[in-house]
Amino acid sequence: MTGTFSCARVIIIGAGIIGLSIAVSLQRAGVQVVLLETNKVGGGASCGNAGHIAIEQVFPIADLAIVRQLPRMLLDSMGPLRLDWRYLAQIMPWFFKLLANMRPARAEQIHQALLALNQQSLNAWQTFSDEWNLSQWIRIQGSLLLAENPASVAGLQQHGARLNAMGIANNWLDTNALREREPALAANQLGALFYPQTGHVTNLNAVTGQLKTAFMQMGGQLYEGCKVLQAAVQDDHSVRLHTSSGQWCAKHVVVCAGAHSRPLVRQLTGVDVPLDTERGYHLMLPNEKARLSVPVSSIDRRFIMTPMQEGLRLAGTVEFAGLQAPPNMQRAQQLLQLAQPMMNAPLDDSDATSWMGFRPSIADSLPVIDRRGPVLLAFGHQHLGLTQAAVTAQLIRALYFNTEPGIDIRPYRLHRFSCAETSF
């Protein structure tokens, strides 16, 4: 790369919720930060996710029980999983690594690593919310996981007992208690786990907008519509970036590009991370703002409904089709068909809007949070990017300043993909 370079102390690649959280944290700590975003700040999965601060989700994204259900799920047009068969050859290496991580000992390591992050996530979010004046959009009022199939009830109760034993508070609500808490739910819902120490964001765009404003008011520099085309670490340990808007050099770079992080990490570190995308969909119902009070998900239907200021967001599904295939918006419309039978009155879907985005999922269900020389890494949070954004910002700040992170970060380090054997 040749030509004239603009120089910075720290460049963050990606201005989703994780990149923004890191940017404001470092800028407030006295670091001059430049934030580069391919599209718009807070776009992509950061604006389209379910809005759930899901500290209860402490298990890998897939297990052997789900593998046994794959044929049925893939043949079900209303099912939570879809595979674009044209993408099969590309996704197979990732799938094989996913299967390898389902071995009992490895799955337990992953579970413990997710638990360690999520146990810190709620306190991190509360502190972060207070620091950046986000409290009007953050609700720590709990969430519900429902069962309507009689065969699911015992399993869900056992799941709740297991979570209680590890310190993730929940309690069982029978049909009457459930209807008392959420009167809009239909009588076919047989019971639920209520998680009192979870939360949700009522306006994702407002949160990212507030962080963007704070970052720029502190002197941070933001460049939207700036795609990083090539990245390299130089002999002097500086980093050079060739972008669609010119060339940059920096003492440090932070990769927070979500599902688009893999090629950048390969260029900067030489490590090929087994990262692919689980494409997710949502349907926003703007005329259903008051139907529910907390996020409600279904263990049988495998989707979630979250009350937001803009309406009721129906979100979920997993689609493997890569980054280039056009969205299949029928997947979003199917969420309404899943939601209607759970309610005691028809949902108003007039003026509904749909969305598709890319979840950055690594084959071991864990993010990469690490520092390698001048390169810091914060990507691959799968379904938990919003949940773990604030704690990830804390960890990256500690790595940048070489201070004690407060969490054993070995499970999240990049070297796990460059070693023959992984050990924590």
UniProtKB/TrEMBL annotation:
Annotated InterPro entries: FAD-dep_OxRdtase, FAD/NAD-bd_sf
Family matches, as Pfam families: DAO
Transmembrane segments: 7-26
Sequence ranges assigned to domain FAD dependent oxidoreductase in this UniProt record: 9-397
Domain of life: Bacteria
GO MF annotation, one: oxidoreductase activity
Keywords for this protein: Membrane, Oxidoreductase, Transmembrane, Transmembrane helix
One GO CC term, this protein: cytoplasm
Coiled coil: none
Protein name as it appears in the record: FAD dependent oxidoreductase
Protein's organism: Advenella kashmirensis (strain DSM 17095 / LMG 22695 / WT001)
